[in-house]
Amino acid sequence: MPADRLRLRRAGIALEVVTLAWNVVGVALLAILAYRSGSVALLGFGLDSLIEIGASTVVIWELTGSDERRQRLGLRLIRVAFALLAVYLLVQAVFALGSGHRATPLLGGIWWTALTAIAMFLLAFGKHRVGRALGDPVLLTEGRVTLVDGILAASVLVGILLNALFGLWWADPVAGLVIVFYAVREALSALRI
User: What rounded mean pLDDT belongs to the chain?
Assistant: First the structure.
């Protein structure tokens, strides 16, 4: 393998490891924040981060030369996880909207989602550059998932801020519904793989 290609593969793996580490911390932190605030959006974003851990693991396997069968299995598992996430969040968001459940906005949720949006946008940019240089469709696809993760973080942030600043309690479950839309879309796109 030429040295430049090896360097690019290592860069791709490094980007995935940073994404993986960020999401591992995020899952734990978001679980605490979602519990303390009662936020459907933070809970959904935490579950999405858990799925992103699986997606990063699949890409690391692919970049280290794993076989196609294991990659397909990983993608199927991710598809099922996204489908379950969509069903769970849809029920939670509809219940929260119907019952008038009001999440308590927490400063930690605001900071974490803002930092996550920035981190995911930067990681997505790096994955796109490395994936394009490698001609690696799996890294390019996961880079788009990372970009969407940044958009989701921004969406959750907007929901929390609307609730915190203007008392728009319904913004939190609506932000959860944005994640439902994304989860359904990802589950359906994984069916085509």
Answer: 87
